[in-house]
Design a protein that fits this description.
The chain is α+β, with helices and mostly antiparallel strands and 256 residues long. The protein contains 10 helices and 10 strands.
Length: 256
């Protein structure tokens, strides 16, 4: 993680660096900064496929199609590639992109980024009314990071019966245990923006925060606030918990 805001890679002239930019950023995700050598203004962006993102900037067709709504694309067309430098600020996992992009937006204050919220159509021109609408919509909103997999288990299966599950034979108790793990939703609350993101399972939630699964569990158990910003809790409906307990033989069959 880059803590001093210095780029880890620098390409002074976009016009003569195309091939090396493609080669060095192939199969990589991270945060980048485009800087105008004429105006001194810059743009912060992120992508899980940096090579593909940069190929867009090298496409005149793409720039012309988006110049009406993208300031950075319009600037590239106005000044040309020789007047722009590219900096790779850091490489990071896709799950950390928005958090790290937001960090650089906050610390470097790039002029070509109109909306100062990572992932919210950064670098596009919008009316004040549209900006306010986006801001209002984001406040207190709950996002589902992934669709919830609903596992259907026949109600007539008796404890100890075997069934096919992922091409293997398991007892009903084992199926219940797996179902319980898959059914747990992890809620991450950003107390600074009052935004909630819900992930399916610990692994995806930990990846989003760029921490280990054991660290995630510790913060859930202790109730401590991660990075003075995130509250991490489990979400499991009472109805599903009762059903899973019945499948494990803990309770009699519930009337749901």
């Amino acid at each position: 993680m880059n803590k001093n805001n210095l780029p880890i890679k620098t390409y002074i002239d976009l016009n003569n660096s195309k091939n090396i930019i493609y080669e060095e950023n192939k199969y990589k995700s991270g945060i980048y900064r485009l800087n105008s050598l004429v105006s001194g203004k810059s743009y912060i962006g992120s992508s899980k496929s940096l090579k593909n993102r940069f190929s867009n900037y090298y496409s005149l067709n793409y720039l012309n199609k988006t110049k009406g709504s993208s300031i950075i694309c319009r600037a590239l067309l106005k000044y040309g590639y020789p007047k722009f430098s590219l900096y790779i600020m850091e490489y990071c996992e896709p799950g950390s992109l928005l958090e790290r992009e937001q960090y650089y937006i906050n610390t470097l204050n790039p002029e070509y980024n109109i909306l100062k919220i990572a992932g919210s159509r950064l670098g596009t021109i919008q009316s004040e009314k549209t900006k306010q609408s986006i801001s209002n919509a984001l406040k207190g909103r709950v996002f589902y990071a992934d669709s919830i997999i609903k596992m259907k288990i026949a109600a007539k299966l008796r404890l100890g019966d075997k069934t096919s599950f992922f091409s293997k034979s398991h007892t009903l108790a084992t199926i219940s245990s797996i179902s319980l793990t898959k059914s747990i939703l992890v809620k991450i609350t950003d107390i600074q923006t009052n935004t909630i993101i819900i992930f399916k399972g610990n692994i995806k939630a930990a990846k989003y925060l760029n921490i280990g699964e054991s660290t995630l569990r510790r913060y859930k158990q202790t109730g401590k606030i991660f990075k003075d910003k995130y509250i991490i809790t489990n979400v499991l409906s009472k109805k599903k918990l009762v059903k899973l307990n019945w499948l494990s033989g803990v309770l009699k069959r519930p009337r749901l």
